[in-house]
Design a protein that fits this description.
- The protein is of the alpha+beta class.
- 30% of the residues lie in helices and 21% in strands.
- The chain has a three-stranded antiparallel sheet with strand order 1-2-3, with helices on one face.
- A hairpin with a 6-residue loop joins strand 2 (86-94) and strand 3.
């Protein structure tokens, strides 16, 4: 049987390489935050994702396309903590092309 290296790439770790945490990536993408599982954070995420989508496609498809974005942020039960699981999700969308967006947050 032939070994397909496309699917079996070795993972290498270099001790001097900095690997960003999920909060660092989130801060770089959506702006810094003190807390990550909040309605404010979901709103910031939705705004960034919606703008990214609509600004990229508005010129070529804005007259015929209704845009939307979905975002969620959750905290799971940690092994050694007594925290409760909770989260937020939101949807930002246009009902029809060129309409003002609507938003739902849960």
């Amino acid at each position: 049987m032939q070994d397909n290296h496309l699917f079996h790439r070795p993972i290498t770790h270099h001790p001097n390489t900095h690997h960003p945490t999920s909060t660092q990536i989130s801060d770089a993408t959506y702006g810094a935050a003190q807390r990550y599982v909040t309605r404010d954070r979901v709103e910031a995420m939705l705004e960034a994702e919606y703008l990214s989508c609509s600004l990229t496609l508005r010129k070529s498809r804005g007259n015929t396309t209704a845009f939307f974005a979905f975002a969620d942020t959750v905290v799971a039960k940690a092994f050694n903590r007594a925290n409760e699981c909770h989260g937020w999700l939101g949807i930002k969308y246009q009902a029809q092309p060129k309409y003002v967006f609507c938003g739902w947050y849960f």
